[in-house]
Amino acid sequence: MAEDGFRVPPEEAPHQLTFMQWPVTTEVYGTGRYRRQVQNQIARIANAVAEFEPVVMLAAPEEHARARRKLSGNVELWDIPADDLWCRDSGPLFGRDTRGQLSVRQLNFNGWGRYHLPNDERIAARVAERLGLPLFDSGIIGEAGGAEADGHGLLMANESSWVNANRNPGLSRSEIEQVLLTAYGADRMIWGKGVKGQDVTDDHIDGLGRFTGGGRVLMMLAEAPAPDDPFDASARQLQQRLQAEGLQVDTLPWPEAGRIRDVNSQCSYVNYYVCNGGVIAPQSGDKRADALAGEALRRHYPGRELVMLDTDLLAELGGGIHCATQQMPA
């Protein structure tokens, strides 16, 4: 438990609602058809989640009418401007204490050390202010998509996303670990190496491995080792570390016959989102891999309805459903 008594609960614990962000940045999406396609994708995810729990979409007021036309009645619009869609990284990370009081844990998003997204850098603080919640500043720079918490005291992360001069120059892994453990209210941490500089996030953990409960992890892992692939080497090393720590590690293969042929934009089945009574997960179009992913997710999350969506646009942008959502605990 953190010094202030707060712990980030597991994603599968009950939620009050889900936060998402309405993407408008012209630097990434332009002003035409492509931006509309990405907005449609975000609306489909929001509407799917809203079948299970309330959704709050963060958007500048001038975007509300356009967004409203695409969103279901279970999605509420808040006047908090967003630049991009990655609410897992720039949105509010919540901790809860033993009395049920919430606080927002500020990880100081800086555009993954690459982009200036002035609205997104302020979202966590603005949500805390609107909700009247205390804001805990972790003192480091990073993203919640770069750390995975089981909610029971264990964290895992790739070094590449944190021990990196584009976020935390001059800080050692042990210094960053202590700060993350405090921010999340966790007791211990398992590090993977990760891969720097090959994707926007520097190899976020939430596209590679997810806790599915105490002592259980679901990971993406190619069926055969790829000797020249640094991502594969890092993933196998992390699998070994998790198993050495006594965790049960299930693996899912990367889709090979899906709609996306670019190996750098593959659909990650672990980039799913757990909401009240449901799991919203990506679908690749590879029938065998989709079926394996569906079976594993039903096994890891019994009693929840599984909804699988075509989220190829997000995969091509380097993320997925989990990256676009952020839960507010009950």
Structural write-up:
By secondary structure, the chain is an alpha/beta fold. The chain has a single domain, classed as L-arginine/glycine Amidinotransferase, Chain A (5-stranded Propeller). The strands form 5 sheets. A 4-stranded mixed sheet has the order 3-2-1-16. It has a 3-stranded mixed sheet with strand order 4-5-6, covered by helices on one side. Strands 7-8-9 form a 3-stranded mixed sheet, with helices on both faces. The model has no long low-confidence stretch (mean pLDDT 96). A hairpin with a 5-residue loop joins strand 4 (93-96) and strand 5. Helix content is 27%, strand content 23%. The chain is globular and about 50 Å long. The longest helix has 17 residues, at 33-49. The two termini are 18 Å apart. It has 9 helices and 16 strands.
CATH structural class: Alpha Beta
Helix and strand element order? EHHEHEHEEHEEEHEEEHEEEHEHE
CATH level 4 superfamily: L-arginine/glycine Amidinotransferase, Chain A
Strands, total number: 16
Give me the number of helical elements: 9
- What would CATH call the architecture? 5-stranded Propeller
Give the overall form.
globular
